[in-house]
Design goal:
13 helices, Dimethylsulfoxide Reductase, domain 2
Length: 337
């Protein structure tokens, strides 16, 4: 799997999973270049968690402390209590310095900063109620950060590896291997599905030459982008608002998406193309419905599954756009009973 905003190093440093982070459970947050309110991993989820401990009221007179060490000003950095600018080349040494302050026993670091020492002191005073995150895709940096969190007792508290996030699952090593194999002429077919590595991969030039050496290349991207224009076939996907889909962004968290508009152009949903090429004559809608029947189990009738899906989609809509209305409906139902 390829991801242009790769978290491959974070996954590798955490035993092959992308941990779930809960910023609401941290009294002290130290971010080493992770823009978790703007672009990092799951910013909408993280922003909702983060604000929980940033509100002060008559019942809650304390708020979380947030230290941000970053090369460029980010949305997250602009919200920090303490923001320390540093060079990109200093990030590794800054992480090592924090590791030495919290865990100890690491190699000597050339980075020396009073705010970092203060951050380390506050982290140690909040063991099990703190969180350290890094935005780097360097395995060494992410390994140090994982060790810091482990030492502080944050794993199992603000960090959950048992119920990991299933987004950002790209594997840099496997992608590089694919690029090399394409250039060696050992790949018989390649399909690009919403991926444009000719535009955004560090080895874009090698991807471009590699595609030319693959006998069968197919683009399922929804437009003729830099990668799709080099493929032998283009089978453009529907826009996501024209498609049926289901999701599992986090283990055990399931969701559905239904089309909101009819297809505007001569496109076909990518999953329908894949089913057809696999010799499966059913539509993706029917395939999806059958899969949900097996998941739900108890709801077996045709009317039942349709009714359940309609109710589920309505609840998801209300939760997203009108949570107050959903609560009012629940309270009204209870008062009637």
């Amino acid at each position: 799997m390829y991801d242009s905003q790769s978290q491959s190093a974070l996954i590798q440093a955490n035993g092959g999973v992308l941990p779930s982070f809960d910023f609401s459970k941290a009294n002290v947050i130290v971010s080493l270049g992770a823009d978790f309110l703007g672009t990092w991993v799951s910013p909408v989820e993280h922003a909702h968690q983060y604000i929980t401990n940033r509100k002060v009221s008559s019942d809650k007179k304390t708020m979380s402390r947030h230290f941000q060490f970053e090369p460029n000003l980010s949305l997250t950095g602009s919200n920090a209590d303490v923001r320390v600018p540093l060079k990109p080349s200093e990030m590794g040494q800054a992480t090592l310095a924090l590791y030495n302050e919290v865990v100890g026993g690491g190699a000597a670091s050339t980075y020396n900063n009073a705010q970092l020492k203060k951050a380390a002191s506050e982290l140690k005073a909040n063991r099990g109620r703190s969180l350290v995150v890094a935005g780097s895709n360097d395995v060494a940096i992410q390994t140090l950060v994982a060790a810091i969190n482990q030492s502080l007792g944050n794993v199992g508290a603000a960090i959950d590896t048992a119920n990991p996030s299933l987004v950002r699952q790209g594997d840099d090593a496997r992608m590089i291997r694919l690029v090399n194999e394409m250039n060696a002429g050992s790949v018989g077919a390649v399909i690009f599905y919403h991926a444009n590595p000719v535009y955004d991969h560090p080895l874009a030039a090698k991807v471009k030459t590699g595609i030319a050496k693959v006998p069968l290349s197919i683009s399922l991207n929804d437009r003729l982008d830099e990668t799709g224009s080099l493929c032998y076939y283009a089978a453009p996907d529907h826009h996501y608002l024209e498609s049926w889909n289901d999701y599992e962004p986090k283990r055990g968290s399931l969701s559905l998406a239904q089309p909101t508009i009819s297809p505007l152009f001569a496109t076909r949903q990518a999953q329908d193309s894949l089913l057809t090429w696999a010799g499966n004559a059913q539509s993706y809608y029917n395939f999806l419905r059958a899969n949900w029947r097996s998941i739900l189990g108890a709801i077996s009738s045709k009317v039942g599954i349709r009714l359940f899906m309609m109710v589920l989609l309505l609840v998801l809509f209300l939760l997203h756009l009108r949570p107050q209305l959903l609560l009012q409906l629940i309270l009204t139902k209870q008062s009637v009973q």
